[in-house]
């Protein structure tokens, strides 16, 4: 049986993103969707990559703090790859591309936080690097802004990213 050439990339689903002072939209559903996709990826022996954002001093995602840790409900297992990043783009100044190349990955399924920042930047970069990109339509989230609700931001990014940079699919229809 041929190994999967697809990887699951989970971006910045860290404890600090779930703090009460700023409510992450649809947070329980986001975790449920990611759990489902982790299960699908494991069943297909697809590699799973976790990206952790190193927040600045005072940030709920500051490196080394409890908020920096990956959310316990989707905790990595032995063999999963955990990479740290300092920029929205998961490829910028990280070893992500090399890790994908070592495993002959040509397709990435992307889920996580924050729709308009790290999800957007990583989808665009993965596309530019030649990957077949699938954005999980119901697998990324954000916060309300002063201009748009979180729901509007998510819908907008699904539309924009889906026009050029990625296939946008609901979690139920994603295969690894």
UniProtKB/TrEMBL annotation:
Belongs to the isochorismatase family. Keywords: Hydrolase. Coiled coil: none annotated. This is Isochorismatase-like domain-containing protein. It comes from the Bacteria. The keyword Transport does not apply. Residues 6-145 form the Isochorismatase-like domain. The keyword DNA damage does not apply. GO terms for molecular function: hydrolase activity.
């Amino acid at each position: 049986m041929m190994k999967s050439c697809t990887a699951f990339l989970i971006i910045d689903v860290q404890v600090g993103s779930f703090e009460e002072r700023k409510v992450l939209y649809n947070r329980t559903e986001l975790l449920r969707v990611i759990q489902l996709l982790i299960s699908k990826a494991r069943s297909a022996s697809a590699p799973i990559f976790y990206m952790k954002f190193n927040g600045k001093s005072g940030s709920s995602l500051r490196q080394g703090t409890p908020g920096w840790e990956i959310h316990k409900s989707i905790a990595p297992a032995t063999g999963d790859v955990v990479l740290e990043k300092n920029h929205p783009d998961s490829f910028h100044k990280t070893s992500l591309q090399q890790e994908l190349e070592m495993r002959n990955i040509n397709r990435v399924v992307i889920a996580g936080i924050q729709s308009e920042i790290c999800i957007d930047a990583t989808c665009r970069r993965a596309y530019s690097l030649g990957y077949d990109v699938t954005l999980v339509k119901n697998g990324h989230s954000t916060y309300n802004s002063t201009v748009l609700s979180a729901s509007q931001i998510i819908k907008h990014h699904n539309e924009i990213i889906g026009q050029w940079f990625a296939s946008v699919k609901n979690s139920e229809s994603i295969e690894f």
